[in-house]
Amino acid sequence: MPTTHSLSPLTTALKLSRLLQPKLLGSTMGMVMSLPLATQVMAQDIDFNVPAQPLSRAVMAFGQQAGLQVLFSPEDLEGMQGNALIGRYSAQSGISRLLGNAAVNYSFQSGTLTITARNKDGAVELGATNITGQGLGAQTDGTGSYTTGISSTATRMKLSLRETPQSISVVTRQRMDDQGLNDLTEVLQQTPGLSVQSLGSERFNIYSRGYSVDNYQFDGIPTTLDIASQVSAQSLADMAIYDRVEVLRGATGLMTGAGDPSATINMVRKRPTAEFKGHVSAGVGSWDKYRTEVDLSGPLTPTGNVRGRMVAAYQQNNSYVDHYSQEKQIFYGILEADLTDTTLLTVGADYQKNDPQGSSSVAFPLFYSNGQQTNFSRSTNSAARWSHNPQDALNTFASIEQKLAYDWSLKVAVNQMYIKRDDYKLATASWGFPDINTGAGVRLYGGAGSTWQKQTGLDVQAQGPFQLFGRQHELIVGYNFSRYENRHSPLRGTAIEGTYVNFYDWDNYTNEPNTSNGKLYDGDTTIYQSGTYIATRLRPTDDLSIILGARASNYKYNYDLEYVLTPASNRNTQYRESGVVTPYAGVVYDLNDIHSVYASYTSIFKPQSVRDATGATLDPREGDNYEIGLKSEFFGGRLNTSIAAYEIKQDNLAVVDPGQVVPGTTTSAYKAVSGATTRGFEVEANGELMPDWNVAASYNHSITKDSDDERINTEAPANMVKLWTTYRLPGDFNRLTVGGGANWQSGTHITVTPSTAMGTVKAKQEQFTVVNLMARYQLTDQLSTTLNVNNVFDKKYISALDTTFYSGYYGEPRNVMLSAKYQF
Known about the structure:
The chain folds into two domains: 3-132, Phage tail protein beta-alpha-beta fold (3-Layer(bab) Sandwich), CATH 3.55.50; 264-823, Maltoporin, Chain A, CATH 2.40.170.20. 7% of the residues lie in helices and 54% in strands. The radius of gyration is 28 Å and the shape is globular. Helix 3 runs antiparallel to helix 5 (91-99). Residues 1-41 and 120-134 have low confidence and may be disordered. It is mainly beta and 824 residues long.
């Protein structure tokens, strides 16, 4: 029989029960618990996306998204229906809207929401209780979690990872702090299914499912990275200002339009907090690495309706590569203002200055002149000592969110990135192949000049619920565009290209270029994309959701090349597509409260700027992307797992045409391959296995073959395993957290024809494993120190096999970083 209780003793008992959490997880009471988040969630607005559904499930979803523990009796809520809650609300106003006129009472106390049935005399009755541990919202900073509760990268709808019918991985703030992942490339090296390959000291090619990734987003606003331009601010991004990195693998045409079926990398910035908080940190590491950070956040007005956050970081370091050093400065500021109860304005900017010395635009030669694969020291630098490739990147952004009637909302967001690459001077001994005995026969490749790049992105969207056939569903409609402008002005110089050096004994000395003769040419690239999209999430039953959508895109590409002294060599390349429709379909079926199966489909459209041996630009790539899988949520969403299988079919896939160059250039020519098929499967787990034990584990398999069943894109590994785990020791040792992991990948190779004289040759990297370790000690409640040791066994490996310049780049040897952090 139910008994009558007051709420305060019940809440007190709930707090005490956390001490017994491991036992409760296995008890017959069916209690699901996890560690509490900061109670500051009560004072701030939260992005909710809780569809109309049975009230017991609705309040569990509410608790996950609000970061609250929820206590209720399933009997009390039986037969009741929760209202939809979609938009930005405080926890108090949100639960009021969700409950509506339901015959229940609710109470907030110490981060716990208690919901009880009303009886006739107003007393509170409790049956057998159901405790849901606080779940996770979108933000991961301060949660201590390796997973997130909400992601909108796939469809702009705020969905859990389990509700998203595609493969998506999240590297949280806690994971970055644990492993000391300070650069985006370091984050991506730990992300499931991604292969990070260095093409030079500041150029990286990221592979996913066998294809290069060029779609990078800031808070969901797309930008383009063209590695050929050597303006690569996105891949150089410092992680001090980011809450998490979300990687959606596969085609993402619904939101981005044209693109590879590889992945979308979405960097999500830190947000202001409702209460004052912050940290300062400092670290020292191998190769004279020094790093400091300051992060301050909190309300700027007595009422808290204006909130701000500021982050600054500085790093300088030498390198395992001879004559290479780096200095970078990072600044970030953001303001949030509640203009009204229903209007939120966000404005901000971030700036990063990268100042490297000894920069290599291309890595070391992969082959000797006799076709044998080279084997140099990992410290080998192919660049001149004065080689310099600075990049300054400024991002400005703003958004305004307006709550509308009937739980609808409207959001307008804009991001503009301006990159300046002034006074670069590059010289790399990478043009040609050294004699295996003498080291002679290599020319310098490079130049001097300046580049600026501006990318502007805008997204306008409206989303909310609607009623159909007696059930509530969701709809989103929107428009976005992006404009990419790259202006490159190299200077005429001497003593760079065409100068021969001896690769063995030149010691990275050569004359700097004489640039007094002015510009060589102006190379201007402009890419414009726009599109209108619509998607709906239909809920025919409580357990079934169907996402249907489509995008109509316009695409314009223009490249102008104007020589100063030889106008006859000028050329213009244009390409346009209008009204390209990209359909999207996904279905998710809940097998029970933990497991869901899903399937999804989208088409592929990718214009190509590369040219064939006749000089003609290749036709756009087209194809289809299919995926099926099983996703699971354990412990109230604190642990997410997924198993997926996929197939990608494409026509007009560009691959290097061995031994061919574009007429009038030294650039490798490409040819189109039809009937290319990629098949693979993935297994992944991220989150908390038990209190104080986090894990991130994945296995990814992917192979691409042409219509003749021959494997292509072999520079990307077919198999990868990534494992990382941390555990905070119990009892008297609970101030110590230890962690470790390993990254393994299968072998890679390329088969190319660098010249007629050399013939067809092959370079390869055998399978290898890199092991990393960490330990953190909590000196006080506020002060901690962390030690990271990377590549513990000092494995030597080539991280990249470049088919364009026939070059390679070694991965980092064993290195150590010791840091201290003070939080307040």
